[in-house]
Amino acid sequence: MTTKTCVADARNLIITGVVLMLIGDLLFALNDAMGKWLVASFAVGQVLVIRSVGAFIVLGPMILRQGPMALFRVEQKGLQFIRVFMATCDVALFYAAVAYLPLADVMTFYMAGPIYIAALSHFFLGEKIGWRRWLAVLIGFAGVVIALRPSTAMLSLPSLFGLAGSFAFALSLVMSRYLRSTSDTTLVTWQTIAALITGIVLSIGHWQPATLIDWSGMLLLGIVATCAHLLITRSLKLAPASLLAPLQYTLLLWAIILGYLFFDDIPDAQIIVGAAIIVVAGLFIFHRKNLKETIPAEAVPPDGH
After folding, report:
1. Is residue 261 classed exposed, middle or buried when 0-12, 13-18 and 19+ CB atoms within 10 A define those classes?
2. Best label site of 86, 207, 218, 263, fewest CB within 10 Å?
3. How far is residue 276 from each of residues 62, 252, 289, measured CA to CA in Å?
């Protein structure tokens, strides 16, 4: 095989990775919009239950191929539990927030995930960051404060749900850093089981009758989210994370578009300014990280509701 052929093959793999990332981001944006539509009529717990059942439609064959017993052969069970707990909080809090806030507002909080990860990695993973990235972290936090609206609304429960959810997301990814030898199927399966159990508990006394369209929408929610997760996981194996990471900010663009088309939501000036500051700070952190070393997959913004 010639050098030219090798270069062409590598370029094709990178292009494929970029396309898969963009499709995965679009699917996650659609998943978030569907979730917002559903939690407007149904309790978060009920949506989590049916969503989890839908996820197993995709996960089932993968579990059988891997072997069910492999789910129990995991490293560091304590950290596995913490990761699952944080990932479950992330999903539940996201739906709780999006039930009351515009989709773009909630996604703005979640776009700060990489900024939290940069700060947490310094303390918990021993990944030293320089003063420039610390400055970017502080600027990113300023963007979050602006998006929260510095007023009494800053303490509104839905805003706090979104903020806590994005922080739980960041913590779950930091835990994933420790557990990177665990298969994707195992990680996603336990995360889905935890979401199912949480949904059952939260739905007690709040279960409502639904139409066939509603049930189908909740099942589709799980299928779409799982497919998006698998697409993004595959993309990170085909193309450099430093190239793919900034593409995740298209989630915010899709959130604005879908929020306007389906919910008639238009972001106000503070959300736009806050989001812009968060994106710029996040991109700078990625840039500096890329100058120092290869960006880990865990530094990528939210890829799994």
Report:
1. exposed
2. 207
3. 39, 10, 20
Contacts of 124 (CB under 8 A, 6+ apart): 174
Q: Rounded to the nearest 5 degrees, what angle is found at the Cα of 237, between the Cα atoms of 3 and 84?
A: 170
| E strand or H helix that includes residue 107 | helix 103-110
Whether the pLDDT of residue 12 is over 70: the answer is yes
Model confidence, pTM: 0.78
d(C-alpha 118, C-alpha 97), whole Å: 24
Tell me how far apart the alpha carbons of residues 266 and 67 are, in angstroms, rounded to a whole number. Answer: 47
Cβ pair 222, 52 in contact under 8 A:
yes
Query: d(Cα 199, Cα 67) in Å, to the nearest integer?
Result: 26
For the record, the structure tokens of 177 come out as 């850093």
Nearest 5°: the CA angle 92, 98, 103 is 135
Report the percentage of the chain scoring pLDDT > 70.
80
| pLDDT score of 111 | 78
Terminal CA-CA length for the chain: 42
The enclosing H or E element of 118 equals helix 113-124
- DSSP secondary structure string, 193-239? HHHHHHHHHHHTTT-----HHHHHHHHHHHHHHHHHHHHHHHHHHHS
Cα gap 114→269, rounded to integer Å? 23
Q: Got the DSSP string for 48-72? A: HHHHHHHHHHHHHHHHHHH-GGGGG
Could you read off the pLDDT of 236-278 as tens digits, one per residue?
677 766 567 677 778 888 888 898 898 888 888 888 888 888 8
